[in-house]
Each structure stands twice: as C-alpha cells, then as structure tokens.
Design a protein that fits this description.
- By secondary structure, this protein is α/β, with parallel strands linked by helices.
- It has a single domain (about 5-240), classed as Alpha-Beta Barrel (TIM Barrel), CATH 3.20.20.60.
- It has helices at about 5-10, 25-30, 40-50, 60-70, 90-100, 120-135, 155-170, 185-190, 205-210, 220-235; strands at about 15-20, 40, 75-80, 105, 140, 175, 195, 215.
- A five-stranded parallel beta sheet has the order 2-3-4-5-6.
- β7 (about 195), α9 and β8 form a beta-alpha-beta unit.
- It comes from Actinophytocola oryzae.
C-alpha cells in the first residue's frame, strides 16, 4: 500500500475517518469494518505496552508495535510518531518506512523543554523528514497551540501561521488538535487538507461541514474500551453489583 493512495483519500468535505488503533487485533477490526486506512494512537499504543504517552515509551517498542500492525493488514497505515522521539529526521523517516508505514503524525509539542517547538524549527524538522522520505510518507503536521489555550480564538492566528509554515515545509496535511468552533475559519484560511480530532461536542457531520479532509478519533476507542472492561471486571468481582 502506497503513500499516494493514502494522500488521495484526503478530500476536503469528504473526510477520511480514522478510528485509531493500538495493536494488530484492533487494526484488523478496523479493516473488517470497512475503513480504508489504519491509524495508530500513540497514547493507546504506549499504554497498551505499559507506558505513559508523550514519548515515555521506548522508541524501539513503539516501532515494533507499528510493524506488527502493518503486517496484520493490507491497507495503508499511518503512525502517530509523536514529536519524532528525538530522532534525527532522516533516521525517523527511515524507521517509519522500514516498519511499513506510509504516513505519520508529527507534533510540535516540546516534550523535553515544555511548551511548543518554535515554528521555524519545527518547519525545518518537517522539511528534513520530507527530504529523507520523498513522497513515500504522508506527513500530518500537528499544530498543538490549541491544546492548552483557555481561549482558542486568541491563538487562532498563531495556529494558522504554524499550519502554513508546516505546509510550506512539505507537510501534506495539518492537524489543529482539539480546535473546536474555529475549525471552519482555520480550514478556510489554510486552504489545504486539515485533520480534525473528533470531540464530544462536534459530530463527524459537523466536522465534515467545515471542509476538513481527515477526522481522527485519537484515543477515544481505547478509553471507551478500557472503561467498558473495567466495568465488566467489577461485575465479575462483585456479581451483586450488576
């Protein structure tokens, strides 16, 4: 499966919907349900391996998990590579391609120093990943400025500026994670494929209407299944509570 196929599925107004997975079993279920692409969730993969999110997991374990997923399905797989795990761009690109991924998420959060990576430095990193991977990798550049903003409108211009810089550096798609009511304005201003995260207050239909080209469920399925399993375990432990 090629990056070209994955890239072709990013259609504004007819978004690619991605129920993010964490292992070979969940990847197979996504394909069985009729989805044309498999995407991983770094949080779900890390926690399924016994680690926390935000690059706390061993990088070799994360790539091994990605390889198991790509081997399990016959559709394109895009991997949430967080902020690149501190790897040089060429090494990151090589390792993603080696495990069979044809796409990746790369975020601009600084997991070492805190806050966000300066936009120009992140753009340089993305450009170097693009140069190393050529067109064999669909790069989804995450814009994290909305994650902790108390007022998303106040950082909308910064988010748009970062998105434009990342697209100019070679990203195929930009991902303003957690952006809510400002999504339509963001999409209109950026003028390129945009990835939205499914939120409780915004349905897939709502997000589709904004013109996004891709919708991620992120860790939603992982969290729901964990909550369901915990409830089942409580019932097994105490049948009277059922």
């Amino acid at each position: 499966m090629t990056a070209a196929l994955l890239r072709s599925l990013h259609v504004p107004g007819r978004p690619l919907v991605l129920p993010n997975v964490w292992d070979a079993g969940t990847a197979r279920l996504v394909v069985e349900a009729g989805f044309p692409v498999v995407a991983t969730s770094s949080l779900a993969v890390a926690e399924s391996l016994g680690h926390a999110d935000h690059q706390a997991a061993d990088v070799d374990e994360m790539f091994a998990a990605a390889r198991r997923i790509t081997r399990a399905v016959d559709v394109p797989v895009t991997v949430d590579a967080e902020a690149g795990y501190g790897l040089p761009p060429a090494e990151l690109a090589a390792r993603l391609l080696d495990v069979g991924a044809v796409g990746c998420n790369l975020e601009d959060t600084d997991h070492v120093g805190g806050g966000l990576v300066p936009a120009d430095r992140q753009a340089d990193y993305l450009a170097a990943v693009r140069a190393a991977a050529g067109q064999d990798l669909v790069i989804n550049a995450r814009v994290d400025v909305f994650l902790s903003a108390k007022d998303q409108d106040s950082v909308l211009e910064e988010g748009i500026s970062r998105a434009r810089a990342y697209l100019a550096a070679g990203a195929d798609c930009v991902y303003p994670i957690l952006l809510g009511t400002g999504m339509k304005a963001f999409v209109d201003e950026v003028g390129a494929p945009v990835n939205a995260m499914k939120r409780q207050d915004l349905s897939i239909q709502d997000l589709t209407a904004t013109g996004v080209a891709r919708i991620s469920l992120a860790a939603v399925l992982w969290r729901r299944l964990q909550a369901t399993l915990l409830e089942e375990l409580r019932v097994v432990r105490d049948p009277q509570a059922e």
